[in-house]
Amino acid sequence: MCEVQLDFENQMFIELLAQDGMVVLARGLGLERLFLKFLKLYSDHHQLVLVLNTSPAHQGQYMEELLREKVDHLPRSITNEVSVKERETVYQRGGVVFITSRILVVDLLRGQCPVAGVSGLLIWSAHKVTETSSEAFIIRLFRESSKSGFVKAFSDSPEQFMSGFCQLERVMRCLFLRHLYLWPRFHATVSSSLATHKPEVVELRQQLSPAMTAIQMAVLDLIKSCISELKTSNPAVVGDG
């Protein structure tokens, strides 16, 4: 991931850090970069932060970036291959923990995960949270036991909030969040930041070899023959153009 931090990226981070909420970005504006900054911030054994909805591929990518940035207290991942005793050790160790929703529900209900010791939740792909999802149940349990813990949600699929009636409102209610941070491409800060860091376009043209040229001409002849045959058999289907 690029080291350069754009103005709108810094503003997004500051806003979400200061006040819990859900941030919704236009696709391609670097949601992974924003999420990585929070992972780096909370990679500290003095607090326990649980991360939901991330795939193994995303987790591996974040681990590589945190290793490259020489983060000491690296995140841990809890899957069904981790025993109950090992999970309790991971919780006690603190820091960032990637965990599946199914396992976390079980640990919360059995009291194996110390809710009072959880500093907060980071919810990836927040648009997938519904009234009947495990994530919504987890957040409810967390909010009932912890009034000071934070919940921060992330999504780069704004179109998902347009399906159904009041979909955005329902998701916010499931997340127990009141603040929404929208960052479309036409946002003034985004537009100005991207304008000063325009992409460099390099066009490369490869000269065709004689054999490649012969193949290209043969394909064109075949296309012309097919179109001519279609015109002859059914003039109504293929026009003069």
TrEMBL record:
<keyword id="KW-0227">DNA damage</keyword>
<dbReference type="GO" id="GO:0000110">
    <property type="term" value="C:nucleotide-excision repair factor 1 complex"/>
</dbReference>
<dbReference type="GO" id="GO:1901255">
    <property type="term" value="P:nucleotide-excision repair involved in interstrand cross-link repair"/>
</dbReference>
<keyword id="KW-0255">Endonuclease</keyword>
<dbReference type="GO" id="GO:0000014">
    <property type="term" value="F:single-stranded DNA endodeoxyribonuclease activity"/>
</dbReference>
<keyword id="KW-0540">Nuclease</keyword>
<keyword id="KW-0378">Hydrolase</keyword>
<dbReference type="GO" id="GO:0003697">
    <property type="term" value="F:single-stranded DNA binding"/>
</dbReference>
<protein>
    <submittedName>
        <fullName>DNA repair endonuclease XPF</fullName>
    </submittedName>
</protein>
<dbReference type="GO" id="GO:0000724">
    <property type="term" value="P:double-strand break repair via homologous recombination"/>
</dbReference>
<keyword id="KW-0234">DNA repair</keyword>
<dbReference type="GO" id="GO:0000712">
    <property type="term" value="P:resolution of meiotic recombination intermediates"/>
</dbReference>
<dbReference type="GO" id="GO:0003684">
    <property type="term" value="F:damaged DNA binding"/>
</dbReference>
